[in-house]
From TrEMBL:
The gene is trpS. It is found in: Cytoplasm. The keyword Protein biosynthesis applies. Its EC number is 6.1.1.2. It is an enzyme of class 6 (ligase). This is Tryptophan--tRNA ligase. Keywords: Aminoacyl-tRNA synthetase, ATP-binding, Cytoplasm, Ligase, Nucleotide-binding, Protein biosynthesis.
């Protein structure tokens, strides 16, 4: 089976619907045909300030959400990034072959550092992409399923792998990015031209997996649309409606065209009401399962520990080769 790697940051208590649609849904089907590694990337999460006790809770919570959404921790390797030290170790080596200018061109860094201000911008945030490259390359990954926002990072990963291989000899598999075009980017409901994110300043336009149903309903009913009227998919002129239609279509497994037909001549309120039902129908059972899983944290920790051991073994093999290739003296 081809090797697959992906991850999410435990940067909030709950995942948001973009993580579910852009990543988790895709992972769920890919895990059947791939040897999948799914990580809860806590080393990445601390590139912006996290409250320590919350981070610990959010890490368990993110694991529970992966499992509740259908990731099977006995078929896939689901583990916490900081449990496998090789990630940080390989990232350091990759930092030394990454150009400063090259890293400066990463749009996520530009966006996040602009949002947090120069004083809160850290070397860690700058080095996020080389850590992500280490995540992927450690597992000799062939496929990286991510949302559109991560494409640039996977491209950098490929460049670094090629560079390392040509300088030190064949070491890394060159990974391919796998993006589902239609669902690659879910937008904020209050600002439908900007990506929905866990770390958005305002939560008004973010649909959280773990929100109470009443909250989800309110947020969807208040989603920004436009003054033209008409349920038509037009990303350019009607980004709000296009976003709602995208979410609806994926969660209900229906084509956009069939939704346009159903809602032809009706108001946005009807579309939103329909969407509320579909979103709650998907998230209600997931929320219940998450509560069950978090009711037994010791069992969850055991699952994460055995998965980390599996990841550790694979990662250390690659790291040993890298250390040898760059000329580190082995500890005997
Ligand atoms: P943060 O704001 O902390 O960066 P995030 O919501 O962007 O959080 P990540 O943990 O950075 O989430 O990303 C996890 C996965 O979810 C990645 O594969 C990413 O591409 C995908 N993803 C994130 N936001 C969206 C979105 N709005 N639409 C589609 N996919 C998304
Ligand atoms: Mg992100």
């Amino acid at each position: 089976k081809p090797r697959l790697y992906s991850g999410m940051q435990p940067s909030a208590e709950s995942l948001q619907i973009g993580n579910y649609i852009g990543a988790l849904l895709n992972w769920k089907s890919l895990q059947q045909t791939h040897d999948a590694f799914f990580s809860i990337v806590d080393l990445h999460a601390i590139t912006v300030a996290q409250e320590p006790s919350k981070l610990r809770e959010n890490t368990r919570g993110t694991a529970a959400q992966y499992i509740a959404a259908g990731i099977d921790p006995s078929a896939s390797t689901l583990y916490v990034q900081s449990h496998v030290p090789a990630h940080a170790q390989l990232a350091w080596v990759l930092n030394t072959i990454t150009g400063f200018g090259e890293a400066s061109r990463m749009t996520q860094f530009k966006d996040k550092s602009a949002r947090h201000g120069a004083d809160a911008t850290t070397v860690g945030l700058f080095a996020y992409p080389t850590l992500m490259a280490a995540d992927i390359l450690l597992y000799q990954t062939e496929v990286v399923p991510v949302g559109e926002d991560q494409r640039q990072h996977v491209e950098l990963t490929r460049d670094l792998a090629l560079r390392f291989n040509s300088r030190f000899g064949d070491t890394f598999t060159i990974p391919e990015v796998a993006i589902v075009k239609e669902t690659a980017k879910i937008y904020d409901l209050q600002n439908p031209v900007s990506k929905m994110s866990k770390s958005a300043e305002s939560h008004a336009g973010v649909i959280w997996l773990l929100d109470e149903p009443g909250v989800t309903r309110k947020k969807i009913m208040r989603a920004v649309t436009d003054a033209h009227g008409g349920v038509v998919f037009d990303r350019e002129n009607k980004p709000g409606v296009a976003n709602l239609l995208t979410i609806y279509s994926v969660l209900a497994s229906r084509t956009i065209e069939s939704l346009e037909t159903e809602y032809a001549g009706r108001g946005y309120g009807d579309l939103k009401k329909g969407l509320v039902e579909v979103v709650l129908g998907t998230f209600d059972p997931i929320r219940e399962r998450v509560a069950e899983l978090l009711g037994d944290p010791a069992e969850l920790d055991r699952v994460l520990a055995s998965n980390a051991a599996r990841a550790d073994a694979v990662a250390n093999e690659t790291l040993a080769t890298v250390y040898d290739r760059v000329g580190f003296l082995p500890r005997r």
